[in-house]
Amino acid sequence: MHYYLWHEIRDNWVNYPKDLQDELRKAGWEPPRPALDENGEPFVDNGSGEDYLYMHRQTIQYANKILARAGDPNYRRIEGWLEIPSPDDPDFPVPAPWFDPGEFPVVIQFMTRSKTELTFQKYLKPWENMFTDPGFLKDISLGMLGALIHTTVHDTVKRRWSAVPGARRPEPGPEVETIPVEWDDPRYNYLPDFYSMQVNPVYWKFYGWVDDRIESWKVVHCIFGSNFWQGKWMGKIPDAGEGAPAGLYERLEDPAVANTHAAETEHLLLTIGRRLASGNSPA
Q1: Which of 15, 58, 105, 206 is most buried when burial is the number of CB atoms within 10 A of its CB?
Q2: So which domain of life are we looking at (predicted)?
């Protein structure tokens, strides 16, 4: 739920009406660096891309802690793709496109195109070459790297490897008070949905690849260690008692903190949905 709200707010902040921004600000959810402008184009030079990379690095590091506790010798840690899988990769076949009558036509068109070999050869492979090129990485900031990955490879990968979800998850809003618990079933792992994408194996392979790009960038900039982050916004860190761990995920290990935080984030999602459904948003 937190991850879902984090993406929703940072991607749409500039198009929210002022009163909604004020309410989110009071709740501790104002993004210091919005990700997209009013036309949906990325802010490549405001540092929001660094927030994007930092959030997912923290997610991977916490997942690795869980895997270490599990002790499965066959799955010790998150390992990303060494290369984005080619169209004939047997381990990561591309699901067939489908038609969803409830989806915007432009989204259907983008999803269909993203699954083609032409998209791999014309876009994904050149992007991968660019984001692994030391000369290119040397000339850009970490924030720009994150912003460009987010609006190129990320958007294409999540549509390319998406499969028919079976049904459409209801969005919180005027007619939906809460997300029904059946959508928490891990079989619902629709990749384009920020609510469910983390239970899709492709999510972890892709973000492992993204995380490796941070290391590639560090090498060409002669940066060592982990004390280099400037953008570290992960949304509101849940309130907790004295002595509680500082990390987002570590705090959510406390069931009481997790339950309270889930209720707060769902309330904000409901507030956003209802406010935008009123038709007063400039978006």
Answers
A1: 206
A2: Bacteria
